[in-house]
What does this fold into?
Amino acid sequence: MLFILITAVSIITVIVTYLVSQIRKPKNLPPGPLWWPFVGNLPELKKLSKSLGGQHLALAQLAKTYKTNILGLKLGNEYVVTVFSYRIVREVFLREEFEGRPTNFFTKLRCMGKIQGVTATDGELWRIQKNLINRHLHNLGLGKTPMEEMIRDEVVEMLSALRDDGSNVKVDKFIAPGVLNVLWTLTTGARISKNQLDELLDLFAARSKAFDLTGGTLALYPWLRFVAPEWCGFNLIQEINNKLKKLFEKIIEEHRETWHEGRNDDLIYRYISESKAPNKNSAVFNDDQLIMLCLDLFIGGNNNTSGTLDFGFLLMILHPDVQQKVQAQLDTTFSKNHILEYSDRDKLPYVEAVILEIMRFRHVAPLAGPRRVTKDTYLDGYFLPKDTTILLSLHSINNNAEYWKDPENFMPERFLDENGLLLPHEKLLSFGSGRRRCVGEVLAKTCIFFFFVEILKNFYVSVTPGSKLPSSKPVPGMILSTEPYWATFTERS
It folds into this structure.
């Protein structure tokens, strides 16, 4: 009897000790709510995200509740910290110990089984992949002739389609193919076929809506893939991965068959050339890495660029006075037959202010990151243990009344001085900062400028008669999107 009692007390003691360790916070962790054993703050965050319309809004509300610019949570067994002020976000961008990426199960699943590509990697592997992309973009001239020609060709196709029938255009379905074709040409050397285009857009849409930025429930409880693979999304992401891998394997094989020494005219050829150089590490240069590198470019570039343009044309519908001012500046600055160049943006301060305000007012990626803390450190006086995940709330910076007057209103003039010249805009961190600044920043900016300016130079955009006037309120997700809307593009004389 005594043995049974001692055993029972021992078991209870172990359980209580474990439960206490599950809810105990590390000393000096950033403020935040108490957490539950095993699940941490996950139930509270999910409930709040649903009621407020987005994870970024739920995190901001919790930060407001606990009166902090650095919010500390525990999701499952992972510490997750979210930063809200410009000063601290910029510090995270610039400090080396915050350059890591999470290495959890979901990150590996996203990368088809292991950490690879450029978005989810860090350290030497990330540096090599990033430098390869940068070299390819530099060879294209970044904002210069080859890249501009590539984008201009796509714009010509889009303008032709609008002239044929611009009466009832579902804008997101019209913009995304144009952006994806630019990225496809950059990567594979040719425009994408219609069947491949439709398939890719459907796969990317499903992928972006499947999980939140922390990976969702599956990231926290990987064992769910064995008991509820459909419910947790495991089967979905596996199906998407398999389809994408098969598509890119075929394209890479075609490139290998036509490659010759010195051929670097698209990203795949350049990667093959690099892999054949003497003493190249096969763990860094292989087909799996190349597939993930391509996917990182497509997913990041397409979602962010097409999403920004989608919001841009929506805001022109909702603010026709702004659209008229954009078109007036274009008309007075250029002739109708002027061939647009990226350098022309310097002659269009109001147009540039409008584009900046679109990115501030409806930035499609409200949470930048996630970052991984690579060693025990401190941030603004708070302790962050090694491997803590950090999210950066760009949405909070873009909507902070201390930085922006009337941030809830769409006002391009906030980026102009009294003489109508463009003001510095260092607090707009749409593409990040520091060494992990977006590698496709110039490409994205060039696409946005050309698509936005050329379409408004040639067409007036309005809501399709008889359709519902859309709201500018974003649809929540890892990437914010517009409500579906239909527009009429009327050719200007």
